[in-house]
Amino acid sequence: MTNQDLLYHYFSNSLTAEQDVIFQKLLETDPEFRAEFEYEKNLKKAIKSHKSDLLKIKLQGFERDIKAKKTAPFNYKYLAVAASLVLLLGWFGYNSFFGTNYSNLYNTNFSEYPNTVYTITRGDDENTLEREAFVAYETKNYETAIEKFNALSETTAHNYIPFYKAQAHLGLENIDDAKTLFTEIVEADNSGFVAESTWYLALIAIKNKNKAEAKIYLENLIANYNYNQAKAKALLEELN
Length: 240
What we know:
Blueprint: H1 3-11, H2 17-29, H3 31-68, H4 76-92, H5 94-98, H6 102-109, H7 129-138, H8 142-153, H9 161-171, H10 175-188, H11 194-207, H12 211-224, H13 229-239
Helix pairs in contact: 2-3, 3-4, 6-11, 7-8, 8-9, 9-10, 10-11, 11-12, 12-13
Keywords: Membrane, Transmembrane, Transmembrane helix
Organism: Bizionia hallyeonensis
Transmembrane segments: 76-94
């Protein structure tokens, strides 16, 4: 995959976990790649700002026309104009005109974390509780995965189990349960998933429309970890 491909997938929010690792490494070690990334980011920001200004001008003109003709009989052409402006809003971006679209920010930045800790091989005769838990997780059978992870927690000291159990809760939209587990992981600071948990706590705060809390988690991630740092910076700019 070329650097251009990586940039394309980054700005379209379609990087895989493996591609994201490569992307972050290039940002840290390749000045030319970082310069290209900054250029693309600033260009995208400028285009978004320009489109927002165009939309604002159109809306202001529409408002003036309505006020000037408010005593005139209803004209259906204004209904058509209003409909076209709704389409423009969808094209130019809801966030830039009406404020933060939390649902959109969450959906475009969220992706389920892949199983990176337990290898499942086809034809594997091993039939352990941990294998059953991760098979359920990978097949998105989240209720079974949580049940197996709970049972597994009683018999193993693996510190990654709470992280994947939190992921399963996110898959079921059990947001409060997921948040509790991610918070415990961050506070314990004894697993390899503290940075990742911080990222998901930021996304949960966004889903809950808590901008202040989301910014705290993102700033912590940017200051202390490399995981999803570029995405965190971009997301923080959206919230500011």
